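chain below, 112 aa
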Amino acid sequence: MLTELGGEIVSAEQVFATMSLRDALLELTDGNGIPLDGDLSTNFDELTGDDDAEARDCFPGNSTKCIGFSWWLPVDHANEIQSDSVQFDLGFYTEQCRHNDGSGMNNEEVDA
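prediction:
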């Protein structure tokens, strides 16, 4: 699938999870969330891979990446949900690759 994004043609995308909204929100709020891989050609598994796995690559500093999140209702939902709502926040944590192992923030206390 080719997509035009900011004047550039994007020819590759990766879907790393297809699940219910409930399961997606559980994955996103578990531990440090979902570690993303900067290289789509590697075999890193975002849902089961370790944050500091060798197969997980950094995002190049001179590139633009897009993250999509979508959900839908089944066609046979009728009117039982017409007054329902859903609300959630998405947050992102980033750090430079140099001098970091990719395992996220160090939550240990620091001596002053």
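The longest helix spans residues 21-29. The longest strand covers residues 3-5.
thats it, cya
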